[in-house]
Amino acid sequence: MTKRVALVLGSGGARGIAHVGVIRELLSRGYEITAVSGASMGALIGGVWAAGKLDEYCEWAEQLDYLEMLRLLDVSLLDPGVIKGDKLFERIRQIVGDCRIEQLPVPYTAVAASLTARREVWFQRGDLITAIRASCAIPSLFKPVKMHGQLLVDGAVLNPLPLAPAGAAAQADLVVAVNVLGEPEPDFDQQESPEEEDSLFTGLLNRWIPKQKSEKKQLEKSMGLLDVSNQSMELMQQALTRYKMAGYVPDILVTVPKNICQFYEFHRFTEVADAGRERAVQALDEWEANEGIQHLLEAEAEC
Q1: Which residues have CB under 8 Å from 254's CB, separation 6+?
Q2: How far apart are CA 164 and CA 71, in angstroms?
Q3: pTM score, whole prediction
Q4: What local confidence, expressed as pLDDT, does residue 278 receive?
Q5: Residue pair 276/20 in contact by the 8 Å Cβ criterion
């Protein structure tokens, strides 16, 4: 049975934590991940794994609560709605270290989008954390990354599920793609609470930012618009993902419903990672069963 995998990890905010569960299930079954490509949260999880620091990252991330995550996001009040993220990515650098992509043990690609050149940018060399940060720079939410005269934002703007880099990985026997923006499923709707139905940004204001009423109202309006912008981007990503898979069909597709959590619910780490592993079990069981049947048919044909 084939074991070498080119792994493709899609965008989706906190839903991308599900990638952790998929990686763990692949490795537990003896699959060898020989290449990884990702956009946004997929670039983060894939990069941390490629650097050999996934366990350390998970140990830290599992302890984060809602308020601690907000502190790490480092919201800039001088530029309403823009998250600097310096504290967050500095903490990730402390975990991973100063690592260059070309020094990783497997080929790795982080996909970003250049607003300047109006095209995809594939990071396959250079500083790993810088590549991850560019790939995660959600427009109107995170500050863009300025680099070599270009303004770089979230790779999901153009390619939320970067299958093309995986297809170029000659050492892989099959491509496994993880889409964490699958169609919503009723089983997960009951997990929402009244607090979670509020806008991320409204909740942030009420919990963390002490402002005068007039200032707070103005900032709340700006942040509410950003929430709408994020939902619009997710809709675009879903359409782009279907388009990309029409051109590059993965051998195995692990689909996680988008209502597994909200895009900002990083404090639900263990729950979302477990859900990702459950979906990987389903997809791999189905593929392995079909692969076993195919081997039997080929054996009978030879007889």
Answers
A1: 22, 176, 177, 178, 179, 276, 279, 280, 283
A2: 36
A3: 0.84
A4: 97
A5: yes
Which pLDDT tens digit goes with each residue over 156-177?
A: 999 999 998 876 666 789 999 9
Query: Cα 182 to the chain's mean position, in Å?
Result: 13
Chain position carrying tokens 């170029």:
168
Question: Using CA atoms, how far apart are residues 63 and 75, in angstroms rounded to an integer?
Answer: 21
The letter for the amino acid at 194 is: P
Decide: 157 and 247 in contact? Cβ < 8 Å. no
Q: Which residues belong to the active site?
A: 40, 154
- Collapsing DSSP to helix, strand or coil, 250 comes out as coil
Cβ neighbour number for residue 253 with a 10 Å cutoff = 18
Query: What are the structure tokens assigned to 103, written together?
Result: 């020094």
Average pLDDT score, the chain: 83
Three-state DSSP state, 256 = strand
Token pair for 252: 């195995």
Cβ pair 90, 115 in contact under 8 A = no
